[in-house]
């Protein structure tokens, strides 16, 4: 091991691996801290690794935008207040229409709304069940319909 990094760890610059981990979090409708994301990749937390991860998160968001999807980096938060770090605020907040403080109730409300968009995009929605009356028997049948 070098600098606390497992030799089999996922490279921090691997945007597709980071995306997969964030999509997994989105499907579970949860955020993930910088430290937990690094840990899932096989790395111990350090400031230099976090900064490298932030560059990768930018690439992940660029790909999401190009695909017409909500940006996934909003799911990556500080452990202390469950809000994204300053880099996210500097690169994303204004573009998304937010000009307030980066901490406090307004910031929390804004982030939760952005995270909900990600969760709604990636979570599996339950299928609706429609009732249908059978013309022959007069009995109601239930069938799954997509939607």
List keywords for this structure.
147 residues, two-stranded parallel ribbon, 45% helix, disordered C terminus, two-stranded antiparallel ribbon, mainly alpha, 11% strand
In one word, what is the shape? Answer: globular
Strand element count: 4
Q: Secondary-structure element order, as H and E?
A: HEHHEHHEE
The computed structural class is: mainly alpha
**Chain-averaged pLDDT:** 86
- Beta-strand level of the residues, as a percent range? 5-15%
Main sheet: strands, sense, barrel: 2 strands, parallel
- Enumerate how many helices there are, as a single number: 5
Low-confidence regions = 126-147
End-to-end separation in angstroms reads 49 Å
Helicity, in percent? 40-55%
| Order of strands in the sheet with most strands | 1-2
Radius of gyration: 20 Å
